[in-house]
């Protein structure tokens, strides 16, 4: 399984177009933020350290998105192997079916982790370049923990989705659609407070958006302490709700533990659904 996963990693990173399109959503968000939205949002909140605050906000969203698109891009190898009948060669080899499936899953998960860490480095460089500060070691450990959990959940979800595709065209179309709408579904293109109530519920029920919430709570802790020093609690809470730093379901505020359980639960559910579908294909 390890050697097969290594093969998939090499195939993915050698194909520059696969890497590019798996990061397409990230490039779109960065482009929109850098060219249009960054200054608008920074000026609209008009607080000390506003740029650091908003850069941390967009960086948190990017970390939530990248493991969705890159794991799906990684599973493109599985689709291509299937359409080119290469997978039949693997099945006829001494490799067990479980090792083949495990290799695809492990390589997608590792690709998600690697690309997320690269994104984190780029985000920190961007933040520091705009006058912000580097995250502390304790914050990094928290971010890493969220990253590992969210990548597991997104790998499971994308695996289940990709199992329904039998052609590269269908996979490419789905990848483009997901890459386009993921920014809306995680409340990045527009803060959740600016969306209609019905759309806000869609965002709150979308599992990867809970990863975004956790990343925001951790990465925005320091800049919020600077920007809202001495501000009334009601003002801070209003900002958190509007920007998706916290979610409220009616009067209930979704806790960090609840978001973690949602992400972990969704990951486990989709992982077993994927295994079930794989077993059906085997029959």
Descriptive notes:
This protein has one domain. It is 80% helix and 1% strand. The protein is built from 13 helices and two strands. Strands 1-2 form a two-stranded antiparallel sheet. A hairpin with a 2-residue loop joins β1 and β2. The longest helix has 34 residues. The mean pLDDT is 85.
Describe how the helices and strands are arranged.
Layout: H1 2-14, H2 16-22, H3 24-45, H4 50-83, H5 86-92, H6 97-129, H7 137-162, H8 168-185, H9 197-205, H10 207-219, H11 221-227, H12 233-243, E1 248-249, E2 252-253, H13 256-282
Antiparallel strand pairs: 1-2
Helix pairs in contact: 1-6, 2-4, 3-4, 3-8, 4-6, 4-7, 4-8, 4-10, 6-7, 7-10, 7-13, 10-13
The fraction of residues in strands falls at: under 5%
Q: Output the number of helix runs.
A: 13
Distance between the termini: 21 Å
What shape does the CA trace take?
elongated
Helix content: over 70%
Topology order in helix (H) and strand (E) letters: HHHHHHHHHHHHEEH
Structural class: mainly alpha
Q: Segments where pLDDT lies below 50 for 5+ residues?
A: none
Care to count the β-strands?
Answer: 2
List the domain count as a whole number: 1
Order of strands, widest sheet: 1-2
Largest sheet: 2 strands, antiparallel
- What gyration radius follows from the Cα positions, in whole Å? 20 Å
Instruction: Compute the average pLDDT.
Output: 85
């Amino acid at each position: 399984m390890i050697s097969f996963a290594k093969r998939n990693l090499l195939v993915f990173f050698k194909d520059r177009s696969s890497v590019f399109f798996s990061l397409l959503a990230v490039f779109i968000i960065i482009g929109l933020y850098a060219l249009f939205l960054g200054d608008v949002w920074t000026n609209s909140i008009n607080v000390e350290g506003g740029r650091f605050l908003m850069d941390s906000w967009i960086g948190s969203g990017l970390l939530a998105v990248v493991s969705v698109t890159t794991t799906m891009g990684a599973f493109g190898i599985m689709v291509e192997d299937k359409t080119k009948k290469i997978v039949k060669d693997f099945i006829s080899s001494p490799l067990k079916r479980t090792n083949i499936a495990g290799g695809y899953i492990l390589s997608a998960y590792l690709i998600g982790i690697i690309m997320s860490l690269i994104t984190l480095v780029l985000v920190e460089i961007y933040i520091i370049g705009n006058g912000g500060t580097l995250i502390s070691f304790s914050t990094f450990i928290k971010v890493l923990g969220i990253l590992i959990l969210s990548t597991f959940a997104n790998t499971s979800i994308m695996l289940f989705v990709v199992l329904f595709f039998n052609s590269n065209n269908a996979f490419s179309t789905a990848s483009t659609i997901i890459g386009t709408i993921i920014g809306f579904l995680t409340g990045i293109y527009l803060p959740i407070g600016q969306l209609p109530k019905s759309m806000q519920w869609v965002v709150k029920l979308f599992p990867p958006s809970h990863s975004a919430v956790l990343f925001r709570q951790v990465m925005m802790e320091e800049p919020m302490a600077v920007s809202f020093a001495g501000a009334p609690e009601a003002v801070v809470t209003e900002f958190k709700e509007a920007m998706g730093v916290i979610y409220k379901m009616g009067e209930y505020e979704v806790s960090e533990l609840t978001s973690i359980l949602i992400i972990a639960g969704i990951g486990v559910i989709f992982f077993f659904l994927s295994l079930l579908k794989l077993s059906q294909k085997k029959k």
